[in-house]
Design a protein that fits this description.
It is built from five helices and 15 strands. By secondary structure, it is α+β, with helices and mostly antiparallel strands. It has one domain: Creatinase/methionine aminopeptidase superfamily (Creatine Amidinohydrolase). Helix 1 packs antiparallel against helix 2. It is globular and about 45 Å long. The site of one magnesium ion (MG) has 6 residues, from strand 5. One magnesium ion binds next to loops.
Length: 272
């Protein structure tokens, strides 16, 4: 059952999404060779609690930490540890927070120092595919339209689109209906309606789409051990159109990047 949100609820969800956005901005400043994913995890927990929110992943389905930290060939759900990041790594960081009863949930894949050109391209295309998908999240379109758009964009670049893991509705629960696969057929699946809020999150592999689940019950890696990227935004339908609730602006501010990629998905200017 799809739980639509009122305008007031969507504004509360924007606050939750901004807690995560700010937290990822703080993390962006700290992602460097030598830092451990566990150190970044502690930083995120402090940052979330300082904003009057609660880590959204900690304890959810018994997950042990605040952040999912998935380096290199890990796709998602990696557990923070004491291994330092090294130059040339990529690290997919997924962050969730609960504020005023609503979840924020989004993710960004960071480069650690200089990375290989083919990996840089994977990050760029995966992030572009996120916006290609968001553009299809509007009234009267269907779940399959978002999935089709993401799949086509990524497969046209020769990448593998993970099938087993999907985006999702978001609200007072972390995972609400509908499931939002990153693959699909035009015109298929549930129809989008005013007030829906979803997390759209392409998980895209440089090589094969096939993945492997590890014995810890969490970590998922690519079967061919080639890198995987993950970008995620929280999006509502307002006045029939996609309205971004999360932002990468804090990350870009920290990294000195200028970008207008989010502008078309905002009906009001973002106030940082
Ligand atoms: Mg997430
Ligand atoms: Mg998610």
């Amino acid at each position: 059952m799809i739980i639509v949100k009122t305008r007031e609820e969507i504004e509360l969800m924007r606050e939750a999404a901004l807690v995560v956005s700010k937290t990822l901005g703080e993390i962006a400043k700290a992602v460097k060779p030598g830092v451990t994913t566990l150190e970044l995890d502690k930083l995120a927990e402090t940052c979330i609690r300082d904003q009057g929110a609660i880590p959204g992943f900690l304890g959810l389905y018994d997950f042990p930490n605040t952040l999912c930290m998935s380096p290199n060939e890990q796709v998602v759900h990696g557990i923070p540890n004491n291994t330092p990041l090294v130059e040339g790594d990529i690290i997919s960081i997924d962050c969730g927070a609960i504020k005023d009863g609503f979840y924020g949930d989004h993710a960004y894949t960071f480069a650690v120092g200089e990375i290989a050109p083919e990996t840089k391209k994977l990050l760029q295309v995966t992030k572009e595919s996120l916006y290609v998908g968001i553009r299809e999240f509007k009234v009267n379109n269907r779940v399959g339209d978002v999935g089709f758009a993401i799949q086509k964009y990524c497969e046209d670049h020769g990448y593998g689109v993970v099938r087993e893991l999907v985006g999702h509705g978001l609200g007072r629960k972390m995972h609400e209906d509908p499931e939002m696969p990153n693959y699909g057929k035009r015109g298929r699946g549930k129809k989008f309606i005013e007030g829906m809020v979803v997390a759209i999150e392409p998980m895209i592999n440089l090589g094969t789409q096939r993945i492997k689940q590890h014995r810890d019950g969490w970590t998922i890696t690519t079967l061919d051990k080639k890198p995987s990227a993950h970008f995620e935004h929280d999006v509502a339908i307002v006045d029939g159109k996609p309205e971004l609730l999360s932002t990468f602006a804090y990350i870009y501010d920290a990294l000195g990047i200028t970008s207008d990629e989010e502008l078309e998905f905002r009906q009001q200017p973002l106030v940082l």
